[in-house]
Design a protein that fits this description.
Blueprint: H1 2-26, H2 31-37, H3 47-54, H4 61-73, H5 78-84, H6 94-101, H7 108-119, H8 121-124
């Protein structure tokens, strides 16, 4: 029994380490967008966040998915979801599609929350 348990522990550790390697290789979903859309922008004083905020329509699908999750689930965007997507049933993907189609109409605080999620302080460090 002890041999099976230790073998299982080793297998789980190997699986987890592979997941960590894959996660480290791919990085956060908006890293590539920041490098592409904000090339030449020096981090600090909110510059990266402002750059991403001005390019919310231009981010990749992976980054956009991350930002839509922030918009749909975050408290900051709750009023935007209620105003722009009233009558859409949760759980069908309709709210995400609605927010995506109304991205230009989102409130400043909601767009701010989305750009903070894209820029992520852990991504580049310091004040973005």
């Amino acid at each position: 029994m002890a041999g099976i348990r230790s073998g299982l522990v080793i297998m789980i550790a190997l699986l987890l380490s592979d997941s960590v390697v894959v996660a480290q290789q791919t990085g956060p979903p908006c890293t590539g967008d920041i490098k592409t859309l904000c090339a030449g922008i020096r981090p600090g004083e909110g510059r990266i966040k402002a750059c991403i905020k001005s390019h919310l329509k231009d981010v990749s699908e992976a980054c956009q998915d991350r930002l839509l999750t922030v918009a749909v689930t975050g408290k900051t965007c709750k009023a935007d979801v209620a105003n722009l997507c009233a009558g859409i049933r949760p759980g069908t993907g309709g709210i995400r599609a609605c927010i995506k189609s109304h991205i230009a109409e989102l409130s400043e605080p909601c767009r701010d929350a989305m750009s903070r999620a894209a820029a992520g302080r852990k991504l580049l460090g310091g004040d973005l």
